[in-house]
Amino acid sequence: MLLRLDPHSGEPLYRQIVEAIKYQIASGGLAAGEQLPSVRVLASELKINMRTVVKAYDELSHAGFIVLQHGRGAFVTEPQHTRTLVSRRKELSELARRLIAEGCGFGASPSEVADIVRTVADEMERGL
Amino acid sequence: MSDLCIETHELGRMFGKTAVLRDISWQASAGNVVALLGPNGSGKTTLFKLVRGLLIPTSGSSTLLGTRSDSLPDSVTNRVCCVLEGCSPPKWVTIRQLMDLHAAAYPQFDRALAEELVKQRGLPLNRRFWTFSKGQQRWAELALSIASRPDVLLLDEPADGLDPAVRRELYDRLRELANERNTAVVVASHVIADVERIADELVLIQHGQITLQASLETLREEVREIELPADQVPLQWGDGMRVLGSKRATSSRVTWVRTPGGDVDRRLQGCLSERAVVRPVGLEMLYFACTEYAEAS
């Protein structure tokens, strides 16, 4: 992991670390599940106090970007991406089924309900 | 053992009728690097001498590693290295002899490290001190202090005469000492960018008094430079905000403000017009703000 800090910029160093690691995660430089350097190693690489690294890792963990495992180190959070997508789809499908069922109670066809959902969604997106 | 390595309480020193230092209450902890900044003649060297027990205070007190500075036993002094101007080793000794002296004086002395540091810069161990350049002599002295692995390391203008590569090496090694050995490192320097790179704490001394004492991360959080058009009416600062200094240019006015207590930018926005430009402040600018452009209090 290559991090560059600018100690002369006046930006807190811990925040520079937070931003740099977030960037690495977003750009794929750090993969999910990958282990970050230990506090000691990163502090020694960056020539800074270990407390500063601890503060950065705490903030990253608090924001959900990394997981701190006691005694093992810091890891980039596993993407719950696929799992969330699947479960979200399941929940939305259930919601849609209930809506269509109710709509059919009014004598509408499922595709008529779907059309109306589409129209309402468009209006909402346009901010009407 | 307590984490506090240096503790002074209302420490002061008169030379004749002149107060060179007044009311210095200051603490330095293990594992921290302290940048001691201040104009020439502000009292930095005197502070080192008082802490190390080379001068007796005229008021207040100082303790070093838990012992009063004016009566330090060998068991404390052999854990403290102090590199001051004008205290260089005799010119006729060789580096090897100097190493033997350090090995005898400092129980934690690491000879292999000393040799590595000295040889790395091409200094032969068996040559006499006077045959080296000023910068080389300085490096040899510093290398031996670092290799002594002290619990407290006091350095007065260490980078004097060192080339940029050696300066970088020096400050990297100081950081390493603080991180790996938990040494309290105090560096007095005018080369602000060098200390800014590795320091944790800032102590600013002016006219014999501490005028600013804070962690660098805190200052990075709290201090901003604000530039306003010169025709703009002066601002009303919010609660707790403190103007450190200000400077008028032809078309604008720059003010340096410290806002303790977090949420700095949002709170500043409340005081500023849209024409204000707000920037973070590096240590060098902060130094100028507090010295050259200081607000008369």
Topology:
The complex is a heterodimer of chains A (128) and B (297).
Chain A: H1 13-27, H2 39-46, H3 50-62, E1 66-69, E2 73-76, H4 81-105, H5 110-125
Chain B: E1 4-15, E2 18-29, E3 33-37, H1 44-51, E4 59-64, E5 67-68, H2 74-77, E6 80-83, H3 95-105, H4 111-120, H5 134-147, E7 152-156, H6 164-181, E8 184-188, H7 192-198, E9 201-206, E10 209-215, H8 216-222, E11 223-229, E12 242-248, E13 252-258, H9 264-269, E14 277-280, H10 283-290
Parallel strand pairs in B: 3-8, 3-9, 6-7, 7-8
Antiparallel strand pairs in B: 1-2, 1-4, 4-5, 9-10, 11-13, 11-14, 12-13
Helix pairs in contact in B: 4-5, 5-6, 6-7
General description of the model:
- The complex is a heterodimer of chains A (128) and B (297).
- By secondary structure, chain A is mainly α.
- Chain A has two domains: 13-76, Winged helix-like DNA-binding domain superfamily/Winged helix DNA-binding domain (Arc Repressor Mutant, subunit A, Orthogonal Bundle), CATH 1.10.10; 85-125, no CATH class.
- Chain A has five helices and two strands, in the order H-H-H-E-E-H-H.
- Chain A has helices at 13-27, 39-46, 50-62, 81-105, 110-125, and strands spanning 66-69, 73-76.
- Chain A has a two-stranded antiparallel ribbon with strand order 1-2.
- In chain A, a hairpin with a 3-residue loop joins strand 1 (66-69) and strand 2 (73-76).
- In chain A, helix 1 crosses helix 3 and helix 2 (39-46) packs across helix 3 (50-62).
- Chain A is elongated and about 70 Å long.
- With 297 residues, chain B is of the alpha/beta class.
- Chain B has helices at residues 44-51, 74-77, 95-105, 111-120, 134-147, 164-181, 192-198, 216-222, 264-269, 283-290, and strands spanning 4-15, 18-29, 33-37, 59-64, 67-68, 80-83, 152-156, 184-188, 201-206, 209-215, 223-229, 242-248, 252-258, 277-280.
- In chain B, the strands form three sheets. In chain B, strands 6-7-8-3-9-10 form a six-stranded mixed β-sheet, with helices on both faces. Chain B has a four-stranded antiparallel β-sheet with strand order 2-1-4-5, with helices on one face.
- The two termini of chain B are 40 Å apart.
- The model of chain B has no long low-confidence stretch (mean pLDDT 93).
- The A-B interface holds A 7-14, 40, 43-44, 47-52, 55 and B 31-33, 171-172, 175-176, 178-180, 193, 196-198, 200, 217, 220-221, 223, 279-285.
